[in-house]
Design a protein that fits this description.
Oligomer: single chain
Number of strands: 18
Strand content: 35-45%
Bound molecules: 2-acetamido-2-deoxy-beta-D-glucopyranose
Shape: elongated
């Protein structure tokens, strides 16, 4: 009889616990990933907690650990007991807040060492928990820009090493690319050259929030431009020669006239 009652209670408690078994709570970080942060600026991560009405949060914890390497020790950044409105940060430059279904982590001056995997763990009353993660990396400047040519396909390819969100643009002889010169690919890192033969200076400019860097591919000098220049110089020399000739002739004529006048004067002088 006693044993049966015990069994009864067990079944009953199991039934009572059942809603807790349907674990629905989830948390995910809303930032677009990976998050890139410029050192010295503020890192802000926001996480959204999805839960049913009967589920109650008892604790929120933000942690950080290196993305790679052997020593992947997890560092607790802040914990928030749901009961008290104040979250306690382990670091003075880190603040965590909890507003309804959202929790936000703010780090005032992000530095390179703060890169890594950030996690937010939400624990409910029964002790069950769920975790949202995101990768945070340093926003890197543009590095090592170079241009190479693919002769068989008349392509110029611009390479950049590890800058964050690089954007590409092209110049030919320091001017924007015209239809006569070529067409820039959708990603911007390639220039399909349509001019033949390929000549002059092609510059690829790569930039992001931290600045710009560029590289130039130098093809043979453009012929038409060179010929035009030579022609212009020859014309100028000819023009100068002609002008000089005309001037010399005019001077010579004037001098001759003067000489004749003098002689005439001398003659009249004699007769008097
Ligand atoms: C040139 O470009 C084409 C098309 O993108 C590619 O298939 C080919 O491998 C490239 N050649 C070289 C030498 O890079």
């Amino acid at each position: 009889m006693d044993l049966q009652c015990l069994r009864c209670w067990n079944v009953l408690s199991l039934l009572l616990l059942l809603p807790g078994r349907f674990w629905c709570m989830s948390v995910h970080i809303l930032n677009e990933q990976p998050v890139h942060v410029i050192p010295g600026t503020k890192l802000v991560l926001t996480a959204r907690i999805e839960k049913n009405l009967w589920e109650q949060i008892s604790m929120i914890k933000w942690t950080q650990e290196p993305e790679t390497g052997h020593d992947r020790t997890k560092v607790t950044l802040a914990t928030c007991p749901a009961k008290s409105p104040k979250c306690s940060g382990e670091r003075p430059d880190v603040q965590v807040s909890l507003k309804q279904q959202e929790t936000t982590l703010e780090m005032n001056r992000y530095s390179t060492e703060d890169s890594g995997e950030y996690s937010v763990t939400v624990t409910d009353r029964s002790g069950a928990n769920t975790t949202g993660r995101c990768i945070v990396r340093e926003y890197e400047a543009v590095h090592h820009v170079s241009v190479s040519i693919n002769v068989s396909h008349s392509l110029l390819v611009c390479h950049e090493a590890w800058g964050t969100d690089p954007s590409f643009s092209w110049l030919h002889e320091r001017a924007a690319i015209t239809q006569q010169v070529g067409k820039v690919s959708k990603d911007g890192d390639m220039l399909i050259v349509t001019m033949t033969p390929i000549c002059g200076h092609f510059t690829c400019v790569v930039g992001n929030k931290l600045g710009y860097s560029s590289a130039t591919y130098t093809a043979a000098p453009c012929e038409s431009g060179g010929r035009g220049m030579t022609a212009a110089v020859v014309c100028l020399v000819l023009l100068l020669l002609v002008c000089g000739g005309v001037l010399a002739f005019l001077l010579w004529r004037r001098r001759r006239k003067n000489n004749m006048g003098e002689r005439l004067y001398e003659h009249t002088d004699d007769t008097i």
